């Protein structure tokens, strides 16, 4: 069993509540638009950290993190890409990879819109954790926690942070 803390679109915003809410997590994943190396370093110092860079991330973050991250955790193959779309409207930059070899979990960010949707066609769960930072049009800042156990997902929680 692996407990995951997931966030996206921090846009260089640091909030101590990230650590408070990710305390029970085994790993922290960031779906891009980190915004600063400082945010990435603080999260990585707290728990094992996986991330992708987003469209606002500069060269320093692009050297540290890939654009697409595909890996397996506790029996579930995961694919993370910042600009990825969602079931029924995947971004052209990733649709070929998803169709050729769908992971069990596809995570994207970018839209600042919290979305959890199951893609029946690809037998794949999609999660966009919304935006945890202050920049953007979103009204509520969000994080997501969930559990992966032998390839199955459970106990998904949406955490709302203070309004912007």
From TrEMBL:
Q: Which residues form the Calcineurin-like phosphoesterase domain?
A: 3-148
Q: Which domain of life is it from?
A: Bacteria
**InterPro entries on file:** Calcineurin-like_PHP_lpxH, Metallo-depent_PP-like
Q: Name one Pfam family in it.
A: Metallophos_2
Q: Which family does it belong to?
A: Belongs to the metallophosphoesterase superfamily. YfcE family.
List the protein's name: Metallophosphoesterase
**From what organism does this protein derive?**
Bacteroides acidifaciens
